[in-house]
Structure formats: structure tokens, C-alpha cells
Design goal:
It is a single chain. The protein is built from ten helices and seven strands. By secondary structure, the protein is α+β, with helices and mostly antiparallel strands. The strands form two sheets. It has a five-stranded mixed sheet, covered by helices on one side. The protein has a two-stranded antiparallel ribbon with strand order 1-3. 21% of the residues are buried.
Length: 337
């Protein structure tokens, strides 16, 4: 489709627009007002590409983008209005004595030509631009579907890992063996987490409240295997729990904290914060880095980066900071856009 759009652009610039300009008496105006005809032609060509590559794409980028698109349209109308009201000549009044009645006698021929060509360029450029953007959106949805299918497999590999399950089960076994009062509730959390992983693997989006609940359960179970050397701070403040997010997206960063930021002999601190206000979500994780090399280190974060690029193009910002001692992730998503 990209090549087809290019061919249409070339055909419009070489064939369609020149032919449409020849329909109007541009030749006479060119000899008399050469600067004006050249300026109009340059503006119409510029207008076509502005609509194709600026105005129409912005209309598909949420409320802010649509506002910018509308402003560009208004600006193009204003520029065309200025061109059409440049005084080139004064019409002879005796032209109306021939008995020919014009529909809009106050509008000169060249002004009608300018507005007619403007409407043609607007309609053609918007038609091609909308067709291109529709195809881009369709391709993006297909890409998201492919990534989601891959994520379903990777989900079980990433979350239902032997070390996580065995460590959790061993911790639960220890709780039951010592008849700890938290044993039963911890087992219920573990079962709930496995159920959540299974059910959300078939969903594109889940309520933010469900994802937050899963993170709380995940952190709670991870604390079972930690000793006093590791402290965990979890700060969650959500205004709208009904906002929808991709399942198992945020927990990937949480899992990374416990995978790389825990040591049985050195002090460490894990910080996790999730704030949402007016549809804007800010998520942050921070953990120490211990020199333990693992296969596929930070691969989950790169997969999340790809998912975010597909699901929230232009609506998110993901930054990671890695030093010799700490690893920090900052994620911002405009869920309301």
C-alpha cells in the first residue's frame, strides 16, 4: 500500500493537478500574472503534501492531534482566502450587457479558479491520506494481534517459571509446616495469580484494578522468600480503576526487580510506584543490580517496549536508567487519549 500511495502522489502531481489547472484559463493569467500563477501552483502542491503527511496523520492521533489537524486545515483555508483576494484586475462592467447572468457576479474568474482548485486538492489529498492511514491502522492491528499471540506463549514462559513456582511453593510449604496464620491466604493468592495468568492471556485489555491486584499478590508472594536484607516499597494511587491496560505488562518490570535486585547477604531496596490521575498513568520501579548474569537479561523489558510501541504509538514514554548499582524504569501512558 505504501508504494501504491506513492504512485498516486506522483500521478496527482504530474497529471491530475496540471490538467485541472489547464481547465481554467491559467494560460492567459500566466502571461499577464506569471508570479501569481506560479505562487498558486506552489501553494496547491504544498497543500497536497501537507494534508497527506501532516493533517491527516494528526487526525488519527487522539484529541490533541485532531486539534492540530483542524488548525492546519483552518490555516490552509486562510492562506487560500488571502490568495483569492489578491487584486489582479478590475472587471469591465459592460460584460454584463451581453445578457449573460453570472451565478456569483461579485466573484471573479480567477477567484473561482483558486477556490475550485483548493477544493479539488483538499478532497483528493484527504481521500488518499485517509486510505493510507486506514491501511496503517489495519496493519498495526494485525501486528498487535501477532504480538499478542506470541505474548500468550511468552506469558507462560515468563511468569510460570520453575524458579518462581518452586520458590513460592517452598515458601508456602514452610508456612503450612510451621502452621503460620498466613499460609492459607498465601495459597489463595497463588491460585488467584495462576487463574489470572490463564484468563488474561486471551484478552487484549484488562481493567487497571485487576492488574494492580495482580501486582499486589505478586509482590506479596515474592516477600515470602525474602529475608531482612531486602526491603520492598509499594506505592499505588489510582483514581480510575476502570481504565483498561494490556494484561501482564506492568508486572514484567516488577518481576525484573525481584529477579535482579535481591541478595541474601547484601542490603537492597526495591521501590515500585503506580500513580494515575486524569487518565495519565505513571509507573516507576527501582532496584539494586547484583552481578548475576542470566540468559535473556532484560529481554522482557524489550518485549514490553515493542508492545507499547504497537498499542500506544505517540501516547507513551518508556525510559530506563542503568548504572553500576541501580536499574530504574519510568513509564508514562496517556490512557485517556
Amino acid at each position: 500500500m505504501k508504494n501504491i500511495s506513492t504512485y498516486i502522489d506522483i500521478a496527482f502531481c504530474i497529471i491530475v493537478l496540471p490538467v485541472m489547472m489547464m481547465i481554467f484559463p491559467m494560460e492567459r493569467w500566466y502571461h499577464e500574472f506569471q508570479w501569481y500563477v506560479i505562487s498558486i501552483g506552489a501553494w496547491l502542491y504544498s497543500l497536497y503534501f501537507i494534508n497527506r503527511f501532516v493533517t491527516v496523520p494528526f487526525l488519527f492521533k487522539g484529541k490533541k492531534g485532531a486539534t492540530i489537524g483542524v488548525l492546519v486545515i483552518g490555516f490552509s483555508i486562510l492562506v487560500t482566502y488571502v490568495f483569492s483576494h489578491i487584486s489582479l484586475y478590475t472587471p469591465k462592467h459592460n460584460i454584463y450587457d451581453l445578457g449573460i447572468e453570472r451565478l456569483f457576479p461579485s466573484i471573479l474568474h480567477y477567484q473561482q479558479a483558486v477556490w475550485s482548485l483548493f477544493m479539488i486538492v483538499e478532497a483528493f489529498s484527504f481521500a488518499v491520506g485517509l486510505l493510507t492511514q486506514t491501511n496503517i491502522q489495519r496493519s498495526r492491528r494485525r501486528a498487535v494481534e501477532v504480538e499478542r499471540n506470541k505474548a500468550e506463549i511468552e506469558l507462560y514462559k515468563a511468569q510460570i517459571k520453575p524458579h518462581f513456582m518452586f520458590n513460592t511453593l517452598n515458601s508456602l510449604y514452610g508456612l503450612f509446616l510451621t502452621k503460620n496464620e498466613n499460609a492459607l491466604s498465601s495459597l489463595e493468592k497463588f491460585i488467584s495469580m495462576m487463574r489470572y495468568i490463564h484468563t488474561t492471556s486471551m484478552c487484549d485489555l484488562v481493567p487497571l484494578a485487576d492488574e494492580v491486584d495482580y501486582i499486589n499478590q505478586y509482590v506479596g508472594l515474592q516477600k515470602l522468600r525474602l529475608n531482612e536484607m531486602t526491603s520492598v516499597t509499594l506505592d499505588i494511587d489510582i483514581e480510575d480503576n476502570a481504565l483498561m491496560v494490556p494484561p501482564m505488562l506492568l508486572v514484567t518490570f516488577v518481576e525484573n526487580c525481584f529477579k535482579h535486585g535481591v541478595s541474601p547477604v547484601e542490603k537492597s531496596q526495591i521501590k515500585i510506584s503506580l500513580h494515575e490521575h486524569n487518565g495519565k498513568m505513571e509507573f516507576l520501579t527501582s532496584n539494586r543490580i547484583f552481578p548475576v548474569k542470566r540468559i535473556g537479561e532484560h529481554m522482557g523489558i524489550e518485549n514490553c517496549r515493542k508492545r507499547l510501541d504497537l498499542l500506544y504509538p505517540g501516547k507513551h514514554e518508556l525510559n530506563t536508567l542503568k548504572t553500576e548499582a541501580f536499574f530504574v524504569v519510568e513509564l508514562q501512558i496517556d490512557l485517556a487519549a
